[in-house]
């Protein structure tokens, strides 16, 4: 008796299937900003996308079940005076989102459970200290109301969103900070910079614990 050996592919489950058009989000004018950041953010309740907007920066917030063609006049979150460069949902509250912009301001917004029914221009709090555009916003993974921001002024700031105060200013980067990431409990911070270095930083003191050249290209 002969046996047929079937060799299954290790990649048989990695291919996705496109949803039907009526199950997708259509007619959204996604931002054309060249800044390398998060133009789309999602949490268990909402989808947020940075969009093209006249007269300042804006992003759209949609409940998960609002699929299909989105009206061109759908309400936006639009309080910034310059293009929005980065957005991040709070990991501790699904109705709270932060945004950073070319106008040097970080704004924190409260989104109603049902979504927004009119354009939202008044944030919960404005965080103002950066002198140049803010391209990175990042919530602390375990501490409530703690937000990290980084701008083209080479400054990393850790905020208490509840009071609107900057609690730590990290000024150890000689050039633009491209990205940052907390470790699992938020006790350490890793950053990449235009100077090609990766740094591990103590977020409480701003002290550089380790640093190394990462790549020999133009930037990390």
TrEMBL record:
Keyword Repeat in record: yes
What organism is the protein native to? Cotesia congregata
Pfam families, alphabetized = DUF1899, WD40
Indicate whether Repeat appears among the record's keywords: yes
Show me the WD repeat boundaries: 77-119, 127-169
State the similarity comment. Belongs to the WD repeat coronin family.
| Gene3D superfamilies named in the record | YVTN repeat-like/Quinoprotein amine dehydrogenase (2.130.10.10)
User: Which parts of the sequence belong to the DUF1899 domain?
Assistant: 4-68
- What GO biological process terms does the UniProt entry carry, in alphabetical order? actin filament organization
Q: Could you state a single Gene Ontology molecular function term?
A: actin filament binding
Concerning InterPro entries, the annotation shows:
Coronin, DUF1899, WD40/YVTN_repeat-like_dom_sf, WD40_repeat_CS, WD40_repeat_dom_sf, WD40_rpt
What's the name of the protein? Coronin
> SMART domains annotated for this entry?
DUF1899 (SM01166), WD40 (SM00320)
- Keywords attached to this entry: Repeat, WD repeat
Where in this chain does the entry annotate a coiled-coil region?
A: none
């Amino acid at each position: 008796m002969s046996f047929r050996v079937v060799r299954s592919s290790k990649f048989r489950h990695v291919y996705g299937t496109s949803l039907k058009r009526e199950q997708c989000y259509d007619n959204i004018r996604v931002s054309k900003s060249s800044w390398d950041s998060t133009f789309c953010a999602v949490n268990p309740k909402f989808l947020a996308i940075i969009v093209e907007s006249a007269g300042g920066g804006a992003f759209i917030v949609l409940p998960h079940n609002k699929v299909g063609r989105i009206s061109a006049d759908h309400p936006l979150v639009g309080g910034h005076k310059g293009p929005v460069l980065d957005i991040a949902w709070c990991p501790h509250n699904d109705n709270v989102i932060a945004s950073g912009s070319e106008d040097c301001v970080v704004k924190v917004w409260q989104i109603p459970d049902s979504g927004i029914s009119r354009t939202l221009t008044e944030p919960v709090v404005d965080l103002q200290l950066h002198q140049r555009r803010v391209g990175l916003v990042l919530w602390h993974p375990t501490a409530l109301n703690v937000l990290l921001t980084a701008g083209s002024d080479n400054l990393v700031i850790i905020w208490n969103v509840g009071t609107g105060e900057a609690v730590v200013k990290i000024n150890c980067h000689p050039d633009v900070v491209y990205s940052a990431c907390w470790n699992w409990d938020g006790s350490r911070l890793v950053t990449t910079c235009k100077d090609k270095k990766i740094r591990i930083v103590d977020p409480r003191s701003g002290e550089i614990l380790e640093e190394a050249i990462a790549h020999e290209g133009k930037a990390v």
